[in-house]
Hints:
By secondary structure, the chain is α/β, with parallel strands linked by helices. It has a domain at about 275-480: Rossmann fold. The protein contains 24 helices and nine strands. It has a seven-stranded mixed beta sheet, sandwiched between helices. Strands 6-7 form a two-stranded antiparallel sheet. Strand 1 (about 315-320), helix 20 and strand 2 form a beta-alpha-beta unit. The longest helix has 21 residues, at about 1-20. The radius of gyration is 29 Å and the shape is elongated.
Amino acid sequence: MTTLNATANAETLIRRVSELVDSGRTRAARPLLAAARKMAGPSATLARLAAQISVDEGDLGEAQRELDVAIAAAPDHATLRLCRAELRRRNGDIEGAARDAAEAVIADRRDPTAKALLGTMMLELGRTGDAVACLSEAVAERPADPWFREALAVAQEADQDSDAALATLDSGIEAAPGMVGLRNAAILLCIRRRDFTRAVRIAEEARTVGVVDACLFGLKGHALSSLARHEEAADAYKEALKLGPEDPYVRHLVAASGALPGARRAPPEYLRTVFDGYADRFETHLISLGYRMPGLIRAVMMEHPALLAGRDIGPALDLGCGTGLAALAISDMAVGPITGVEISPRMLAQARAKQLYGELCEIDLIRFLAQTDQHWPLVLAADVFCYFGALDEAFTAVHARMEPAGWFIFSVETLVADHDGNVPGNGDWSLQRLGRYAHSTDYVIQSALRAGFHIRILRSEPVRFEAGMEVPGLLVVLERIRHDG
């Protein structure tokens, strides 16, 4: 009788510990856990709870030790294996996580969660075919689970089968119509496929049935902007702001929609507002997007005749210098002093802290070029002309401020057709989603020639990644020829 009461009390205590852990009250759970262990002895359930408490307290090492001991005693326990797989994944040990997930599948071949976790680990290891196989089994066993559906779609797209990925999401939406995450994933996939019309249709269907969030309206705005339906895009961004007023990503989308679609460039006031609010996370965000221009500028500078001959290039002008990434990329080269021009004071503060510039000027670049009488042998404009539609005025102004044989190095985003083969804008340039402009290669060439430049280098280069896809661009080096006055 005493043994039965002790067992009952231990089970009650363990249940209470579990409730406290689930509610996040780990400080209250720990002493009860110790008491439960004294009453019940070692168990997989208590080891799992102890590990969760350690994770919640930030002691991942102790959590790992708890699970290691428990798995050594019960190596075929699927739940413990899954717990350690998640912990290893969190610690960056993807191969270890995959081994534990595989052992969990072997221990319980009917557990779709184990198969799904193994599939995600296979995807992180680059084994896309294995990932699709595992996640397909998980979906087959639990077809209404939206997380499994979304993970399978990611794996299918990574396995170069975006048609299957979209079909997976479509059937998931049908099975779980109230899950906005599946609809967002489908819209984002359509955007990556440049099927903007379908992306808008999915968003409108979601609104019809009342399944929306800030992200859905933001993505809808992306798609509408890409179809040059800018007024509708602005309305979508406003709806996003209503649902996510403090979301910085949403706020950036709304700000971008303020750039008029017919404008020949983004207004300086708009740029100042956007980049002042963006300055503190600018570099981190660009790195996360795989931003390549500073490195590409450095690489092309290695071909400069002065450097090849062992001479200094001399002073340089960095237009739209931002936080100073381009200057940082060439800081060990024989170039300088560098003058930086930037409209955003908070971006200038970041650039100033790098101590790479001889002078920094807070002014719109067109105004600066019109007011200065200095000439430079090198002018840089990294990711600047994505905020200009028409280029002739800027190119002519730069040409007037360059020394003969000077180099003008800049980048643009390339104007490409949509999923239906339509080229947006006027054929020369178009305002894209997020308020940036893209330009046709022919237009860039003709604008450069009209301004009096010689085209020295013109290379197709992706400028960064967006929504998991390369953003096509051009890296251009123009030269002011020696006899043009």
